[in-house]
Amino acid sequence: MPVELEVRGLRKLYGTGPNAVVAIDEMSFEVEAGEFLCIVGPSGCGKTTLLKCLSGLMPPTSGMAFFGGERIDGPPEALSLVFQDYSRSLLPWMTVWRNVTLPLLANGIGKSQRAARASQALEAVGLTDFRDHHPWQLSGGMQQRVAIARALAYQPRILLMDEPFASVDAQTRGDLEDLVLSVHATFGITVVFVTHDIDESVYLADRIVVLDRRPTRVKEIVSVTLPRPRDQAETRELADFAHLRGHVFRLIKGAQVDERPPLIG
Amino acid sequence: MSRRAALLAVEILAPVGLLTAWWFLSLDTTSPFFPPLRTMLRTFWETWTWDRIQQDVFPSVVNFSLGYVIAAVVGIAIGVFFGLNRIARRATEPTVDFLRSIPAPAIISVFIIVLGFEDTMKITAIAFASTFPILLNTIDGVRGVDQQQLEMARAYKLRRQDEIFKIILPAASPQIFAGLRISLAVALAVMAFSEMFAGTDGLGFFIIFSQATYRVNEMYAGIFMLGILGYTVNLIFLATERRILRWHRGWRASELGAQGGG
Q1: Which of A6, A162, A223, B151 is the residue whose CA sits 20 to 30 A from B78?
Q2: Which chain B residues are closer than 8 Å to A137 by Cβ?
Q3: In angstroms, what separates the C-alpha of B255 from chain A's closest C-alpha?
Q4: Does residue B24 lie within any of the structural domains?
Q5: CA distance B240 to B234
Q6: Which whole number is the average pLDDT over A9-26?
């Protein structure tokens, strides 16, 4: 598979001089086209910073990232970003429909195209009947599905997701994970999914980039060879799932600053 | 439901009771300054013929409306610019703070020198005085736009005009409306004052002229009319605000609900 996204020697500092804070020390990895890549690391390790650099919202201090062979120096086309806090990234003064069509409208896409794409995206996330609702009339999980529909309607080649399910309940979370998996399979898009949840990363990913604690580096890239399609009950029962989970858990525990004896894995 | 009905009844009955009490308590009064309500209302009825309304109320309404609309457009436009541009904001902040500290009646003197006693002067004075609350509230509202909404706009490559009209202005609209509301009172006050100070027509002129010629009942008729005008304008404003900010009430209710419910 060709490389869709390439991160090469990426480094990000906040501030300058001796007071500068190292958010990302040095990071290199590649994402293949069509791959589902999870990035997992201890909280506060600069995962959001990384995604902002990859989505072109923030320039790296040094190093670079390439999307489809082109250097990222601003938000690329064909890239959608799903934010962690859906309640802040959806616009409360617009209906679901207008939220989903706004990026299309603003990019000069014609009316019939807009309608077709938005309908398809809302159907993919199961919200066809809620197009005239406002986001605040929906539950948290449904709001995040609106955000996903907005991202899909944009027809990206790559979808970046920043801990998108961190603030929904466990049941909803499982449903949303399966939704993202089905979207990934149906639309054939590349997904980069940032999470702090180890189980989630193993359940979703083809490969997992495990990050070290500050200063942030890539600690290890773990291949997940679990069969697809995945299933919330069956996949999680597999011995391989437990092994991978334990492996990633130990990597992250080892990344903690204090060297307490490892918990029983 | 019955509770709401009871509250509505109180809301209606209290002013009616007040007027009734005033009516009966003032029946026998002989004070030249506070004539009986009955006389005041009769004068009101006799004064405000259609011709008279056209002559003295319409000019006021026109001046008020024009001045207010100009203030709204200018205040919001400059407010968005300053809200987005920190350097421009810092450069003009002292000037704006100084200008808005001058009481409107004082600045009218300048406008009279430059623009004379005509409607242009009155409209300018109304617009000038009522721009500041709108301007300052718009700046605050624009500065308070959620960064994540702006990041979303950038990530999805929204054009600048879409970012302004579809994100920044709606996001700032609750505060813009707060400013518009303050300016409504300011515009009415400056309207009345500019006519008292420099006028040959308009409600303010009618009130001050009646007072100067000892026609106390007419003076009250003018004041009542001004009150009715202000009250009506406020009702129209509130209805508009309710419509445009309906999303905001719903959103806030849900946010509070989410916080309370855990």
Answers
A1: B151
A2: 250, 254
A3: 8
A4: no
A5: 10
A6: 89
Structural domain contains residue B22:
no
**Residue ranges of the alpha helices (H) in chain A?**
47-54, 86-89, 96-106, 111-124, 140-153, 170-187, 198-204, 234-237, 239-255
Residues from chain A that touch B170, judged by Cβ atoms under 8 A, are 91, 93-94
Contact (Cβ atoms closer than 8 angstroms) between residue A152 and residue A183: yes
Question: Would an 8 Å CB–CB cutoff place A79 in contact with chain B?
Answer: yes
pTM of the model: 0.87
Task: Out of A75, A87, A93, name the one closest to residue B157 (CB).
Answer: A75
B158 interface with A at CB cutoff 8 Å: yes
Please indicate whether, in this complex, the C-beta atoms of A79 and B155 are within 8 angstroms of each other. yes
Residue B189's CATH number: 1.10.3720.10
**What is the C-alpha to C-alpha distance for residues A88 and B171, in angstroms, rounded to an integer?**
11
> What local confidence, expressed as pLDDT, does residue B259 receive?
54
Q: Is residue B261 in a domain?
A: no
Q: Looking at the complex, report in whole angstroms how far the Cα of residue A33 sits from the nearest Cα belonging to chain B.
A: 20
Structural domain range at position B201: 36-254
- Residue B26 resides in a domain: no
Query: Is A107 within 8 Å of B254 when comparing Cβ atoms?
Result: no
For domain A34-60+70-78+156-258, the question of CATH label 3.40.50.300 is answered with: yes
For chain A, the domains span 34-60+70-78+156-258, 89-154
Residues of chain B with confidence (pLDDT) below 50: 260-262
* Residues A110, A112, A117, A122, CA torsion sign: positive
Its ipTM equals 0.88
CA dihedral A97, A101, A103, A104 (to 10 degrees): 180
Token readout for A261 is: 């004896």
Instruction: Give Cα separations from A143 to A86, A148, B58, B261 (angstroms).
Output: 6, 9, 50, 18
Chain B hits for A84, Cβ within 8 Å: none
Q: Which residue of A has its CA nearest to B151?
A: A57
| Candidate from B148, B170, B247 with C-beta closest to A83 | B148
